[in-house]
Amino acid sequence: MSRKSLPLSKVYGLLEPGPVVLVTTFHRGRSNIMTMSWHTMMEFEPPLVGCVISNRNYSFGLLKASRECVINIPTVEIAEKVVGCGNTSGENIDKFKLFNLTPKSAAHVGAPIIIECYANLECRVIDTKMVTKYCFFVVEVIKAWIDPAVKNPHTIHHLGDGNFMVAGEKIKLKSKMK
């Protein structure tokens, strides 16, 4: 089997960690939506998620100050809005209005839930030890919501350079893990 060298800048597309999500934050009367694909599950119970949010993003300061967010999981039906949010800064505009997304008050955090997303995870920052060096926040999911009407969500996954993959096909294999 032959092999070809892959540029290191392309490794991300091989290891992408999961669906592209919309992170909502809120601080001092301002909410924002940020598109994020650099996240990873760290623990099952309580659910812990590691999130990389660049210190160049407006949401970085909002999350650092409020220590709360909602991770909203969209489906392919709103993919263009998801990419639009990722290509726009919320520092001077309201992305909810610009992209016609509906905010709803969360139960336990100040950041809003996005109704158009099939799942919403209310989170609190529990560890900031790696924020200064890596912009890596560890959040704990304290409340999870899901739209029961969405039976087979087709999530989008970023592969780099404007390329995405749509996931949604399920297979069942014998496994000892639950």
From TrEMBL:
It holds the Pfam family Flavin_Reduct. This is Flavin reductase (DIM6/NTAB) family NADH-FMN oxidoreductase RutF. Keywords: Flavoprotein. Its cofactor is FMN. Belongs to the flavoredoxin family. One of its GO terms (molecular function) is FMN binding. Residues 13-165 form the Flavin reductase like domain. It comes from Sulfurirhabdus autotrophica.
